Amino acid sequence: MSRAENTGKFGQYGGQFVPEVLMPAVEELTDAHRRYVVENEDGFIDDFRKRLRNFGGRPTPLGRADNLSERYGHDVYLKREDLVHGGAHKLNNALGQALLAKYMGKDRVIAETGAGQHGTATAMACAYLGLDCEIYMGRTDINRQRPNVFRMRTHGADVNPVDVGSGTLKEATNEAMRDWATTVEDTHYVIGSVVGPHPFPTMVRDFQAVISEEAREQSREVIGSLPDAVVACAGGGSNTMGAFHHFVPDDAVSLYAVEAGGSALGVEEAESYAPNSASLGTGTVGVLHGARTKLLQTGEGQIVESHSVSAGLDYAGVGPELAYLVDEERVTPVNVDDDDALEAFHRLSREEGIIPALESSHALAYLEHADFDEDDAVVVNVSGRGDKDLDTVIEESAKRDLDIAPDMEVFR
Ligand SMILES: Cc1ncc(COP(=O)(O)O)c(C=O)c1O
């Protein structure tokens, strides 16, 4: 089967693997996605675009990174999603779905969050649109992402701690789906990436595709042609699909999805643990959160706990469309490890005056390993800004004694 838009299947991936109680919610949303997002009923898309501009601060610039270009010997351009309101691409999707909830007549919104970026974006969108907002967040994540918990509460959202399992994103998603099954009449579930049952992977991609729509247009002006390559980090894959979507038909543009290689590749079956989050490049086929996709799992199909120094990439699955594009050899999955990402964080901060999110630092780190030609123009999607990561970066850099990290003697 091909990359069909309306069935939710991308080859063998995707689908609607949900319990019967969730089917009414999923069917209602499938219908709303078709009417409002695909067919622009009631001018939904026009309204969304206006709000992305006025509230979200779009379009974001595409600019040449002069110092990185000199360092690598080819042109590097940065797509600045770190400049979207809230500091990451996450708002593109959260605003789209919160607005859709309003058009569907729902006054309550729920969301899962891991690092807290999607929860924060959803809380901001709900405050702006006057919707009630409840966020499910694992206890472990609440403790390690405190500033984002404060931000969500400041925007008036309730944060529901999830104490089961490892207390991270997987459990938070399970709880949000459980809530939705019994509250669908007045509630919309804003999923945070291109994952989950159809229509979520297609719908989230549609909202994030504004990144490549702008970048494609801007590259003609800024580069003078289409780029030779687009590079983006992949957790669930929403900034990746957003940055790639409008370039997919352009065969001459190479697409690189950079995953978190963590501290090592592979799955430690006995510990039910993967010291990485590289599901796209190294995972096997299974079902998680309503979709068939590539997963980090044991031979028995148990999803393992994943790892990345970057909380936003720390997920054992990946979007089904990305899995399909990798099988079709349209997208190349690559990975960089925790150390590479930390170095890239410091490099961009020092050499270009931009503090990138640790997630985005993975995409930037790939430039160190890639073998581009000197006349290549490479676009890197800077999915978010790194202020949220400063505590982690200071701690992890000190542990590793990284030469490139600034010393923090001043505090002693
Ligand atoms: C800045 C940033 N980039 C990337 C990601 C990864 O998500 P996705 O793969 O859906 O873009 C996150 C997730 O929290 C994020 O905050």
Automatic annotation (TrEMBL):
Subunit structure: Tetramer of two alpha and two beta chains.
GO CC annotation, single: cytoplasm
Catalytically driven reaction(s): (1S,2R)-1-C-(indol-3-yl)glycerol 3-phosphate + L-serine = D-glyceraldehyde 3-phosphate + L-tryptophan + H2O
Stored HAMAP family: Trp_synth_beta (MF_00133)
Domain Tryptophan synthase beta chain-like PALP positions: 56-384
Function text: The beta subunit is responsible for the synthesis of L-tryptophan from indole and L-serine.
Protein name: Tryptophan synthase beta chain
Organism: Halocalculus aciditolerans
Pfam families in the record: PALP
EC number: 4.2.1.20
Modified residues (N6-(pyridoxal phosphate)lysine): K90
PROSITE patterns tied to this protein: TRP_SYNTHASE_BETA (PS00168)
Molecular function as annotated in GO: tryptophan synthase activity
Classification via CDD domains: Trp-synth_B
SUPFAM superfamilies tied to this protein: Tryptophan synthase beta subunit-like PLP-dependent enzymes
